[in-house]
Design a protein that fits this description.
By secondary structure, the protein is an alpha/beta fold. It has four helices and four strands; from the N terminus they run αββαβαβα.
Length: about 200
């Protein structure tokens, strides 16, 4: 094998390596940009005028409207309103997930609707109107380091959404009706804050 051929082969190999390395760097850079865009989109607060941001609402057909067969013949009344704060349904990818759920994540929304709205919130529909806001819930991993700054920020963001949703409900839908605050898991944690802020020491 001649020296010229070896030199030519080394040059080609070097150029190819550089091209491949640049492609890898470009992909990494694009992933970072995509992640940043996703996080910026995720940071936008929900607009509760839009029924999309309600997992359950009297103004839409949803899983909370389901009635167990043995209750179908029961009298249906709307004696009060239930404001239901659903539990954590954002649980996948513990290591690489964002701290708060993307409200447009179909997988998270399906988990919310098919697990908690269907099997929990629907229990109230024979006697109450059911309101259950979607919110930027904290990921399950926030419970593994609840005292950390990142976890606390995630829980605070989730609570701010629920607080906004509840205020919207009070301003536009309540009209003086009795209210039941119902919640589970992460939702129950936020419900305690909601009760303290809106009801403690108030008539």
């Amino acid at each position: 094998m001649s020296r010229k051929f070896i030199f030519f082969f080394i040059v080609i190999l070097s150029v190819s390596t550089r091209v491949n390395a640049q492609k890898i760097l470009d992909r990494v850079k694009q992933r970072k940009i995509d992640k940043q865009i996703q996080e910026e989109e995720n940071s936008k607060p929900p607009d509760y005028k839009d029924l999309f941001y309600w997992a359950a609402h009297p103004g839409k057909k949803d899983m909370s409207d389901s009635i167990a067969p043995f209750l179908v013949s029961e009298k249906h009344e709307e004696l009060a309103d239930v404001f239901f704060l659903h539990p954590t349904t954002y649980t996948k990818n513990m290591r690489n997930s964002m701290w708060n759920a993307d409200l447009h994540d179909n997988s998270v929304n399906e988990n919310t609707d098919e697990r908690t709205i269907l099997y929990q919130a629907s229990v109230f529909n024979n006697c109450c109107r059911v309101f259950a806001p979607r919110y930027r819930q904290a990921h399950l991993k926030a419970y593994f380091s609840p005292a950390s700054e990142a976890s606390q920020m995630a829980f605070d963001l989730a609570y701010e959404d629920l607080k906004t949703a509840f205020q919207y409900y009070l301003d536009h839908d309540n009209n003086g009706r009795p209210i039941v605050i119902a919640a589970h898991s992460q939702g129950a944690m936020h419900a305690v804050r909601l009760l303290k802020e809106f009801f403690d020491d108030k008539p």
